[in-house]
Write a structure and sequence with these properties.
There is one protein chain. The protein is an all-alpha fold and 210 residues long. It is built from nine helices and no strands.
């Protein structure tokens, strides 16, 4: 990944995900657990990029014909999955692990990994709408400012919470991160959001024409 591209993703995806995580944890809990991402943050950003490049190279080598001189690109879902995997490995958030565990603090790095990949996918989808001149879709996506997730059955975790728990459990039991399966999940999240946006555009146009 080019450094310019990576800096853009850090500013608009990783940093945004960090803000999302911090907003979800009360400030007094952050202080109690000394939760921070600032320690050696520049080194961590470099480590994420290095790990991303390793993951992306492995995916291309194992599963795809990358063309002459390896120039053929992989799709954004796999890019986002590789980025998620990299953030999982680096552990951006640090906290006092000797305290009785608070689950929102414990899940902080897993939530960050999930949201980082989601925000990259969001940026790409918005860019595609703008590139293709689909102004209504782009404007609606901007107003939402993020993706929405399907409702889950009563009594089950909400979709985001369930995905974060899965990342945590797989990590705790040393189950390898499956980039292809994760990329497939991201594809369906993107498809779900596209369909929901299309419904809103249709409803708004129908209302305006009534």
């Amino acid at each position: 990944m080019e450094l310019e591209t990576y800096d853009y993703l850090c500013e608009n995806a990783l940093n945004r995900a960090i803000e999302d995580v911090l907003q979800s944890i009360p400030e007094h809990v952050q202080n109690q657990y000394s939760l921070s991402y600032l320690n050696n943050f520049d080194n961590k950003k470099k480590a994420i990029l290095d790990e991303y490049n390793v993951q992306r190279k492995n995916v291309r080598k194992k599963f795809f014909d990358v063309g002459e001189d390896g120039k053929k690109l992989i799709d954004i879902h796999k890019v986002s999955a590789c980025f998620t995997s990299a953030v999982l490995k680096v552990r951006v958030f640090e906290y006092n692990e000797l305290m009785p565990m608070n689950m929102s603090v414990f899940y902080s790095n897993y939530t960050l990994a999930f949201l980082s990949g989601i925000h990259i996918l969001y940026l790409c989808m918005l860019a595609d709408y703008e590139k293709n001149g689909e102004k209504e879709m782009a404007d609606l996506l901007k107003r939402r400012a993020t993706f929405i997730f399907p409702e889950t059955n009563k009594g089950h975790d909400e979709y985001l919470q369930g995905r974060v728990k899965t990342l945590a459990l797989n990590d705790m039991y040393a189950i390898d991160f499956d980039i292809l399966t994760y990329a497939d999940m991201l594809y369906w999240i993107e498809k779900y959001n596209k369909e929901e946006l299309q419904k809103l555009v249709f409803a708004e146009n129908h209302k305006n024409n009534s």
